[in-house]
Amino acid sequence: MHAPLLEARPLDSLGQFRQAVQFQAHNEPLAAARGYVRALQLQPTFFEAAFNLAVVLHAMGQGEEAIACYRQALQLKPHYAPAWGNLGVALREAGQNRDAIDCFREALRCKPSAPDVLNNLGNALRAEDEPVAAIACFRAALRRSPANAGIHANLGNALREVGRLEEAIKALQRAVELQPDYADAHWDLAVARLLQGDFTNGLAEY
Hints:
The chain is mainly alpha-helical. Helix content is about 75%, strand content about 0%. The protein is built from twelve helices and no strands. Helix 7 (about 115-125) runs antiparallel to helix 8.
């Protein structure tokens, strides 16, 4: 969770917020959510409470409520990149992929080159059948996070989708080098090798 710095707040709302943070830290999400709600009732412009409430609701699987809270937080602080990024993830989970893409791009305007956002944007673009744009996102993400096996795997799959099998295999090989127990990457590498006609190594990966 990206926790913003606290600004000066009325003592009652700040007390509720701090108590909610403790509940959240001790994995008591319902109590944490209630505390953040009370803090917002006392101070409707309490950005940190709105954002943290959204994070808790999102983790609890309350997607629609989390989306509403992320939007509330962004009304209070429109240039907070983590809120845009989290909203994008929640929208993707809700099947609103195009809206998610807009959110990821807004997050990157607020904080350029964030590797997690670039990766999420790449995945969203792949879902819209835009693999070339996705490849650019994954490559940009890897410039900032070169040891991330998941991003290498995503790059490999996007490269495979546009028929660039040699590059796809290199990216997928790097993924399994970084994370040898990455089963999905082994599977994807098997598919790429089989498509290339390398049945010996493809079946071995399979």
